[in-house]
Design brief:
By secondary structure, this protein is α+β, with helices and mostly antiparallel strands. 23% of the residues lie in helices and 27% in strands. It is flat. The chain starts with 5 loop residues before the first strand and ends with a strand.
Amino acid sequence: AKYATMFLAVLDPQAHTLSYCNAGHNSGLLLSAKGDVQQLDSSGPPVGLMPEGIYTEQTVEMAPEDLLVLYTDGITEASDPDDEEYGIDRLAKICKLRRQDDLAILSEAIQQDLDRFTRGVPYADDRTLLLIRRA
């Protein structure tokens, strides 16, 4: 009756790769320095949803200036007064637009964009955001 989603990642700074397993969590976003967006989709079911789960490891290259965006559903499922959700496309759009910003500034820009979008509707869930950029 209980389960958890999880995004487990290992960053290899020597090989410039990110190996991950996404257990039913929101798709991570990997933005290239040029602005291409790759979704790091689920590679297995949420943990505890089934007696046994098969999880596969995925590996992606992180080129210089690539940006990794990991987040909880409290961000993408935030609603406006019309009950429309913020969504992954809006998150990807602001990340793409502001991808060169300092990570603290980008984080604040995302929060401000969320606040503008929700127009005072209380957040229904926690919001967690992790931003990593390869130097």
